[in-house]
């Protein structure tokens, strides 16, 4: 499979603190890659770099390259809005806008110039279907997004990210604040989205990583220790550090 996203010697700093220490990783289309590792090892920092979300953090800077479709996203002429259209992101806590369900999903397409109501209606329905939320909300599209449960809000945030047709979806512990039923709905949604997207997910939940990802990257203290097929990482990792982490977490 062709890689659509690749990092090369990526280093990320907060002031003097080097949080990510020269990571090379590649991601292909139609795949789910899990980023795992102990708290503070740099998973979220690495993830946020992939659509330049760290730009928003004062004192943060990065070196190295991130290639998407052959373009270096760290190039000074990169249009960050266009970049974030291609690479969507969903955070740990659902963060819908204080607007209707419809307006949340229509926000991105409207921002990018879609005005036609029929077209917007189509995008909203399609995005909500892909996020496995349509059947639950189709009769209340114009009610507040905040009237939804936490799990529904998170699927709404996924629909919102999908509405601008990204190629890549970044998920930062998207189910860690949810109950088991909502978690399994999010996991089912991720598995369906894999058919169309490249997905990178940070998770603390080893079982979740094993259930949904094809490849897993193990980070420790800012370094990428091991990257391989998920089954290999969880059954027979090559690096003793990975083994120690996995057995501690599973044992
Ligand atoms: N906004 C920030 N400002 C300064 N330092 C930060 C910031 N965010 C993260 N760091 C530091 O960068 C390092 C990596 O943190 P990061 O949140 O990326 O790790 P993580 O593996 O995602 O952790 P967790 O699993 O707890 O979310 C840590 O030393 C952390 O203190």
UniProtKB/TrEMBL annotation:
GO terms for cellular component: membrane. CDD domains: ABC_PstB_phosphate_transporter. It holds the Pfam family ABC_tran. It comes from the Bacteria. InterPro entries: AAA+_ATPase (IPR003593), ABC_transporter-like_ATP-bd (IPR003439), ABC_transporter-like_CS (IPR017871), P-loop_NTPase (IPR027417), PstB-like (IPR005670). One of its GO terms (molecular function) is phosphate transmembrane transporter activity. NCBIfam families: 3a0107s01c2. This is Phosphate ABC transporter ATP-binding protein.
């Amino acid at each position: 499979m062709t890689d659509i996203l690749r990092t090369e010697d990526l280093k990320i700093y907060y002031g003097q603190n080097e949080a990510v220490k020269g990571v090379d990783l590649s991601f292909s289309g139609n795949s789910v890659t899990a980023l795992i590792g102990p708290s503070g090892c740099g998973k979220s920092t690495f993830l946020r770099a992939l659509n330049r979300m760290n730009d928003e953090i004062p004192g943060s800077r990065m070196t190295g390259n991130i290639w998407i479709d052959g373009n270096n996203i760290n190039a000074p002429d990169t249009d960050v809005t266009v970049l974030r259209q291609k690479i969507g992101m969903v955070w740990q806590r659902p963060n819908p806008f204080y607007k209707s369900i419809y307006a949340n999903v229509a926000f991105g397409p409207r921002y990018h110039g879609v005005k036609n109501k029929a077209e917007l209606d189509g995008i909203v329905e399609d995005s909500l279907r892909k996020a496995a939320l349509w059947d639950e909300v189709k009769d209340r599209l114009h009610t507040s997004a905040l009237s939804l449960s936490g799990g529904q809000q998170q699927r709404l945030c996924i629909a919102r990210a999908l509405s601008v047709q990204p190629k890549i979806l970044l998920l930062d512990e998207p189910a860690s604040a949810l109950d088991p039923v909502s978690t399994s709905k999010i996991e089912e949604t991720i598995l369906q989205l894999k058919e169309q997207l490249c997905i990178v997910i940070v998770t603390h939940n080893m079982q979740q990583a094993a259930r949904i990802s094809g490849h897993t990257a193990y980070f420790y203290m800012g370094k990428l220790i091991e990257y391989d097929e998920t089954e290999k990482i969880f059954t027979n990792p090559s690096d003793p550090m990975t083994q120690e982490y996995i057995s501690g977490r599973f044992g």
